[in-house]
Amino acid sequence: MLVLEKPLILAWTGRSPSYQAEAFAELERGVHAALETYSNVHRGRGHHSMVSTHLFEQARDIVLEYLGLGKDEYVVIFCTGRRAETLKAQLELGSYTSVSSQDIGLPLGIRALAVESKALPRGTPFQTGGGTAKLVSPGWTIWADAPDKFEAGTPAIVNVIAFAKALQLIQHFGNDAFQDAGDDAAAERLAGDERLTAAEILYHDVLEEYSGRGLLDELRQTMIGRSVRVPTAEGARPYINLDNAASTPTFTPIWNAVCQTWRQPRQVQREIVHEVKSICAGFLGAPLTDYDVIFTSNTTEALNLAAESLGGESEQGIEPVVLNTLLEHNSNELPWRTIPGVSLLRLPVDSEGFVDLNELEALLRDYNQKGQHGKRRIKFVAVSGASNVLGIFNDLAAISRIAHRYGTRLLVDAAQLVAHRKVNMEHCGIDYLAFSAHKAYAPFGSGALAVRKGLLNFSPTEMERITSSGEENVGGIAALGKALVLLQRIGLDVIQEEEQTLTRRALRGLAQIPGLKIYGIEDPDSPRFPQKGGVIVFSLKDVPHNLAAKELAEQGGIGVRDGCHCAHLLVKRLLKIHPLRARAADLGLILFPQFTSVILPGLVRVSLGIENDEEDVDTLIRVLGQIARQPRAWMNRLLASMHNGTPFLPQTDAQQQMNDFARAAAQRVYSQL
Questions:
Q1: Which domain holds residue 8?
Q2: Count of domains in the chain?
Q3: Contact, 543 vs 638, CB < 8 A?
């Protein structure tokens, strides 16, 4: 087995004494270029998703080139430290090679495993959730192909790009271009006048005189990529990101915190980690006297930790049950299925996505008080704080009161919640809460699990592995802390008011488009509207969902998402997909995967963030109106009537321009000195 402790590349000998500063400057230039066109990867239809996908996949090739391996034989999988060790334990010695961000001296929290394709484990992956499955049915799962199968949740996309860029720079500057950057002497040279304390990095910035709506307005002006124009059928236009539920862009003060953190000595970096725990605790209403904050790579990893902990518990004479809802993202569905000895029960939701609290209490009473199901007891109620499909916010305080009345713990998947509504874990009685920084304007590979003290069931040694793995990504932790500080200074009440204003405008405009059907709350005057956020899903009568999303990008420069949004059970319920049809799709993915994956049913989703304004909403309505009124071939009308995607996506001049745009953007990131 070849494990590279230090990269086996010859150093460039003609460097200047300030070569490390030059290497960092070029690294930061490349990452900033990636942030200008950042989006979530693989499933988005907009320009930015194309660019980020290209950069992310190109990073795998850069790793293989660095290691001197062929991509016909090896697959590169990006992991955290703990995930990498878990995967290695399932591989044969000699079947993989690894290199990490620690090896090259950067605190990115990245492990790159180059694994022989034939040696990859089959069956259920060791961590499950978003991205690990092609299709999810109530009783079984069709797993994704490698490497997606082993990269649960949204990967640390920006950190992976930074890692790949750093590998390129090492070839120019030498093996020690980034080595020992955290040591005091090196940090002194790198930081110079930028030698800062944790408090200065996290709490101070050029916008600190602003707060409330004034800060929101000023912060929008600093969005990285704000000035980027993209090619469309109507000419170059500003890019409109309406895919915030998948991932969010970032802002200059947050990016500055990352760059400053990378250059600080290790003592300051340790102080940053400690301080961000306090920031998270304050933001979530989870005092550190009663709760632990554990850093992870994303929400999915945090939920897998909770599931793994439950699997390690045992109670004489009890068969544990987890109760979640039909609303859940795959990350709050699949991990609970894979725990030995634990069964999963799903609570239905109404057409707008809300749980029936009376039904919740009846289930808990039957299982935990009356014992009507033998030894089975509901130990966990695991619910989403906000739906990534219907955009509704659950009444967590009411759910908690009922759950605790019957001796059940409450876990909240807060991925879609923390950047939009105020959370108070202590007040609401939440025992576990998981969220990702990349959905809160800090897309640098960090997330967290906040958990009531004493509830995690890991040995001290394993707990140390979990903690050190998450805390390795210091830059991502700093970004998370800075983002939460800014959101708190704006005020979640201000964000909620702004979001509801835009959502109300969007719903009223979309309602005027012929053939457009909105799912969930569609009336801004509904008494439930205050419980809806800026996520809207819809279908068009004559336009398949993948074609509609493609044309939004090509005609308006608008990035959205289409498909099942990693919430397959809910979307199939909303579209009233018959079980026989669902089983046929399962079979089709096994026999004809490429064709079937294109025509699967789905919905188009738009999702708002703090960077959006009324002009963005109006452009969406205008372009969607054009798309809805275009004549369509009979086959596409038929597929749209069945809510299917279409395999007949036209190759247009705008699509070619988008491809050229993506290649040029990637070249700016990975260009060599």
A1: 2-179
A2: 3
A3: no
